[in-house]
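Consider one such protein record:
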Amino acid sequence: MRLVTAGEMRGIDKHAIEAVGISSLVLMENAGIKVLFTLEKCLQGIRGKRFTVICGKGNNAGDGLVVARHLFNNHVPVNVFMAFPPEELSPDAKTNLGILRKSGLNAIFMSKNEDLERLRIALEFSDCIIDAMFGTGFNGQIEGYAREVISIANDSRAQRVAIDVPSGLHSSTGKVSDVTFRAHTTITLGAPKLGLFLFPGRDYVGEVWVADIGLPPSSFESIPSQQTLITREVAAALLPDRRENSHKGTFGHLLVLAGSREYQGAGVLATYGALRSGAGLVTLGMPKSVLENLSCEVLPDAIVRSFPESEGGFSLEADDIRSFSGVYSAIVAGPGWGKGRSRQSSLQAIRKEWAGGLLLDADALNAFFEKGLPAFNSSDLVLTPHLGEMARLSGHSISEIQGGLLDIAREFATRRHCVLVLKSATTLVVGPNGHGFLCSRPNSGLARGGSGDLLAGLIGGLMAQGLTGLSAAIIGVFLHAEAGDIARKELGADAMTVSEVASLLPRAFLRLRGQESPEAVRRV
């Protein structure tokens, strides 16, 4: 599903109005009606409920006034409060205010403390608050009287619904004002906004519904978008059919170079992901002494192979890497490597001698950083850093990355011509062309050691089957999140383990292959 920035949405609206000839008032009317239809669905009906609509002064306020009018026309109790004086309303909002008045419903313009108390009383008797104060054009801090209005709304026990974006949220970056409307439901108009799926904004939006307001396809096509939400449909479109007349060689051979004396389990967890990916063969390569004294069980499905070592970790030479050609389809390197000069030299050998698909994770990324981000010979390079590793790779602080997640990831992936999987509560997959794919399914149960190892093996196994690094990363991130969701629902976020997430990957695959899957976004 396409995600748009505020600027892109303005361009789409402008094309519909100027090039197609749909008036802005028609689009506003469509928006209000579709919000009403969506309210009926997400609130399980509107009859018998009382509503309060809080409006600002822009076109978002106009959408709210249309909703209020249609509620009133359907004999649903509704109060309308305006947080700004009438002379500050946008032309379309002012037009809809006039229509509302002529329909028989008067809005209450607030300007003093007594009006705030009046709002509190109205909210005490409301079942639902509709936020129509600030739309996609908001940027900065909510100040003054409007700040008090939103604080009062947030204190209410009523269901809180935001039109388009919660007031105080930047629709392109996910940044929020100190005081931001905390929605239980956000009904976004035309297309989902990027900022709804980036933290900290993700914490304020609740459940996201998308309302079609009648924008034609040509208007969307007129504005190219560089962001896509990873949904089941997106991942399924990239996943090839698994042909019945196949053999193990059909589905590739992945080599997982992982583990060290300190981190023995990393390679085992990575092979769990690889074996659940559908790869035909998976070899776990480990330093010789580590493999001989392994304290955890390797699944019998995996082939095991020992390699030269130094200081309890890998010590690979160019000849070792050259011997991989024609044997392995792709390599995963880095999980549990630990630190040491031999790891750096091993990475250098891989960099120079391996030309196939390559995924670098964890300690390989640290060695990557220490060598100054050299060019790799790999035809398809995937890097999977978490925020701390990304800070070392990019030279930005973690707070800077969090504040400009997509822009920093996009600049890095295009400059290094790699696929970047930036792991966080919202995981980003960015291709060499800069297009970003977002997986916004936060799950604290996945925030534990080994989760990244499992993901690395899963993506690597998909690459071994012939998928591009970008396609493998998108599918792998989706399956990892899906299995994590199943684990959280059945086991709870507190006690679920990475091994249990791995065991649920087959069910995630079944869902991806056609079984109904829960979605983060609903379309009206």
